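User: I'm new to structure prediction. If I give you an amino acid sequence, what do you actually give back? Let's try with this one:
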Amino acid sequence: MNIKNVYILENRAILYVSGDDAKNFLQNLISNDIGKVNETCSCFASLLSPQGKFLYEFIIIKHKSGFLIDCEKSQADGLYKQLSVYKLRSKVEILNLTNEFVVAAFSYEKFLTFDGVKDITGFTLKFREDPIFLDPRNKQLGARLIINLEKLYLSLKKLDLHDSNVENYYSLSHQLGIVPKNLNQLQNKAFGIECNFDQLNGIDFKKGCYVGQENTARIKLKNKLTKRLLPITIIDGKLHEGEGIFNKESEIGKVLINNEYPFALIKFLDKNFDENSEFKTKEALIKIKKPEWISK
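Assistant: Good question. You get back a string of structure tokens that encode the predicted 3D arrangement of the chain. For your 296 residues, that looks like this:
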């Protein structure tokens, strides 16, 4: 990313969770530890099904007396409803602030120019009362600013940031192997840990119970993780959601996201999976690469 570029992430939404029970409410639901989140630290987390399958992912930022939730816009209504289902008698208020707030992304290098900054994923500071944080998943995704829409362009001018083509940001995310959009295509099709949340600082294996914790812990502790979500590069042809991916006659995975930034659930330990090989689907020739940040 160019140090002066900023990307307005119009595909993102903002929810706000507040109230006396907000912290405990989120702690009992999410895959990460809400105790990590404070004025100087934000975290990446997910909400899983009771079986541990992926439902929603988001970034949580401390803001005033509650927590901002930065999620994909296509998931916002579903996440809002899911949180409301779990609310029961908890003293919690859940608001959808998407029409009031916007998310903007800019480079890691620009983030390091702020006073008092620390080179730590998730590190958070304030710019004119608005949170800026280094992406808690991966530093190469840069930083984000969450700000009221009315203040956006004046603040970008003060920061000497210039609006750039957001597709460049999505392409970078895809190249890094981090899903930039179309997250609903993953719902109930892969375990959260198969979506690499363990490698993206999105799962705390030391915290207490949360929705989906049992299977997530079992897969980790019993070393049963055999599939991971990996980015697809199309050499030729067209992909279809749910179709198999083959090395000759051996199926090594399935296409889960088939749109402009495609991903597949791959048997990454299978002897037939070789990152240097080309693979076939019904109508496409593709390549699949495991990102360097995945340690195993």
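You can read the tokens as a compact description of the fold. Here is one thing that stands out. The longest helix spans residues 73-87.
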